[in-house]
């Protein structure tokens, strides 16, 4: 009887303690779930940055795509290049006061001219080409990372990071300049070389990089590491890539040189080579443009390339070769006179690709750790990524011209239209064109010419300018507040008097939203 009572008491005790043990297991499970929930929340927050930055850029681009005046101080000069093409005039001509070409290859100008025939002449077709090019760049960054990682999460973050570099690139993605088309043609080339091995794909990649060269000369140097990779990996098939690049380069050079009486070689090869080197910019590119702006992305990119368990030697070789081109070559341009924040755009695109691939591999590595270490590593990674995206935050409103800017632009065009005779506006010749007058050589093109040409040619140009001013070829000369590029002209305005009133009474209107901060300031009237 006593033993039975003892046995029943033990069963009752076991039954009574089961709910307590169950509660403890539930508490432990909830504690384990809590950090995992934090990681999921952080990943969702991270994922929001991609559409946020892309959407913000698109809003800015659409708000200013039809703005009828230049967003950047050389954009009007590009518009005048397109105007010359549409009027059947040559681009690469002897430098003169009438016209001097910017130091770029012509594909962007001709493509914009073709679009202009469908949309009408103005800044809209130029910006449309750049806007579509930026969307294509975002798409191929997404596709490259998606193909490497099979992760939409990593691919979305890579595309979002590139969109986030819009501001540190000088707000340049959608303006009427060559750079975004130049980058957009390089990225599908990278995709084809990495993931396709057929002769047709390599030839298509060669044609794309050739079009990129015909947009901006730097692509030719970026293609050299690509050619080395193709030669060592694809062997004889590499001849399709190398042959396409060499063929288009050779044929286009001979053709444009012949059609432009030899001046194509001067503008595309000779003059850029003579631009002076700015020694203070030798390290600026690596410190300010890259590491200070993208510290986490640069660290992850380097980590990915040097880590032991990278997918294969071929994989490492590919991204190292492409990195030499996409990051190293822009550096050679960044410390040249006249460079700006747009120069690192190819580097930003490439770093965004490595950033996305590295994110995927980093989370894969975290999954191999113990439960506590995994959670800590994932939270730390998410926080670092959030910090990188936060560093790139910017105020969008200064990037969009206001109603007062629009009114000021229309007013100066009306003022020019009412002036008798021709008006010389070296920084903004397109304004004279809008007023129904002729445009003349752009100040930046003149400055490049004076810096890279011999004394006889400079003396001839100065003599031509002095004669035009002496004979009263212009009823007025309008100069900007920035005298750096027009000192040669100010010294020769003896026959002109400064008007008593400046061009703009309001000091806050009609400034470009990016690039050199300059606007029409002083009117010199013929005495």
Automatic annotation (TrEMBL):
A single GO cellular-component term from the record reads: plasma membrane
GO BP, sorted A to Z: lipopolysaccharide biosynthetic process
Q: Where in the cell is it found?
A: Cell membrane
Is the keyword Aminoacyl-tRNA synthetase assigned to this protein?
Answer: no
Report TM segments: 45-67, 123-144, 150-168, 199-232, 239-259, 284-305, 317-333, 345-363
Boundaries of every Glycosyltransferase RgtA/B/C/D-like domain copy:
105-252
Q: Which GO terms describe its molecular function?
A: pentosyltransferase activity
Q: Which residues form a coiled coil?
A: none
Q: Which UniProt keywords apply?
A: Cell membrane, Glycosyltransferase, Membrane, Transferase, Transmembrane, Transmembrane helix
Q: Which domain of life is it from?
A: Bacteria
InterPro entries (alphabetical) = LipidA_mod_glycosyltrf_83, RgtA/B/C-like
Q: What is its main location?
A: membrane
Topology relative to the membrane: Multi-pass membrane protein
Keyword set includes Oxidoreductase:
no
Q: Which PANTHER family match?
A: MANNOSYLTRANSFERASE YKCB-RELATED (PTHR33908), MEMBRANE PROTEIN (PTHR33908:SF11)
Protein name (database record): Glycosyltransferase RgtA/B/C/D-like domain-containing protein
Q: What is the protein's species of origin? A: Abyssobacteria bacterium (strain SURF_5)
Q: What is the lineage of its organism?
A: Bacteria, Pseudomonadati, Candidatus Hydrogenedentota, Candidatus Abyssobacteria
């Amino acid at each position: 009887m006593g033993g039975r009572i003892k046995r029943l008491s033990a069963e009752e005790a076991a039954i009574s303690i089961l709910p307590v043990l169950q509660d403890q297991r539930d508490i432990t499970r909830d504690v384990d779930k809590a950090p995992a929930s934090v990681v999921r929340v952080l990943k969702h927050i991270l994922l929001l940055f991609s559409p946020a930055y892309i959407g913000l850029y698109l809003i800015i681009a659409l708000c200013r795509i039809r703005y009828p005046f230049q967003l950047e101080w050389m954009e009007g000069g590009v518009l005048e290049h397109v105007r010359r093409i549409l009027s059947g005039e040559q681009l690469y001509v002897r430098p003169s006061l009438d016209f001097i070409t910017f130091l770029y290859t012509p594909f962007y100008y001709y493509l914009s001219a073709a679009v202009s025939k469908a949309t009408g002449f103005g800044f809209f077709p130029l910006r449309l080409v750049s806007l579509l090019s930026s969307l294509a760049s975002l798409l191929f960054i997404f596709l490259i990372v998606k193909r490497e990682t099979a992760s939409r999460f990593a691919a979305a973050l890579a595309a979002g990071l590139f969109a986030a570099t819009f501001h540190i690139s000088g707000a340049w993605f959608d303006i009427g300049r060559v750079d975004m088309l130049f980058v957009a043609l390089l990225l599908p080339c990278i995709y084809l070389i990495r993931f396709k091995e057929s002769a047709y794909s390599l030839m298509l990649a060669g044609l794309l990089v050739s079009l990129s060269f015909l947009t901006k000369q730097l692509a030719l140097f970026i293609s050299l590491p690509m050619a080395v990779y193709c030669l060592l990996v694809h062997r004889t098939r590499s001849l399709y890539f190398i042959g396409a690049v060499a063929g288009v380069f050779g044929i286009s050079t001979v053709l444009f040189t012949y059609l432009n009486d030899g001046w194509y070689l001067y503008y595309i090869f000779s003059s850029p080579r003579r631009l002076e080197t700015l020694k203070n910019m030798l390290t600026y590119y690596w410190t300010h443009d890259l590491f200070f702006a993208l510290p986490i992305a640069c660290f992850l990119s380097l980590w990915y390339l040097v880590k032991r368990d990278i997918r294969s030697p071929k994989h490492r070789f590919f991204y190292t070769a492409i990195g030499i081109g996409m990051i190293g070559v822009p550096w050679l341009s960044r410390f040249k006179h006249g460079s700006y924040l747009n120069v690192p755009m190819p580097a930003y695109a490439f770093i965004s690709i490595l950033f996305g691939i590295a994110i995927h591999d980093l989370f894969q590595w975290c999954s191999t750790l113990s439960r506590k270490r995994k959670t800590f590593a994932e939270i730390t990674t998410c926080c670092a990524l959030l910090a990188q995206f936060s560093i790139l935050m910017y105020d969008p409103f200064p990037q969009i011209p206001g109603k007062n800017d629009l009114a000021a632009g229309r007013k100066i065009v009306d003022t020019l239209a009412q002036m008798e005779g021709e008006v010389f506006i070296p920084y903004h010749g397109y304004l004279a064109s809008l007023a129904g007058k002729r445009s003349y050589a752009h100040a930046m093109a003149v400055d490049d010419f004076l810096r890279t040409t011999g004394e006889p040619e400079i003396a001839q140009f100065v003599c031509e300018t002095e004669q035009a001013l002496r004979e009263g070829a212009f009823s007025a000369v309008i100069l900007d507040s920035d005298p750096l590029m027009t000192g040669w002209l100010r010294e020769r305005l003896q026959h002109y008097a400064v008007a008593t009133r400046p061009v703009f009474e309001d000091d806050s209107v009609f400034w470009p939203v990016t690039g050199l901060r300059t606007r029409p300031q002083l009117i010199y009237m013929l005495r």
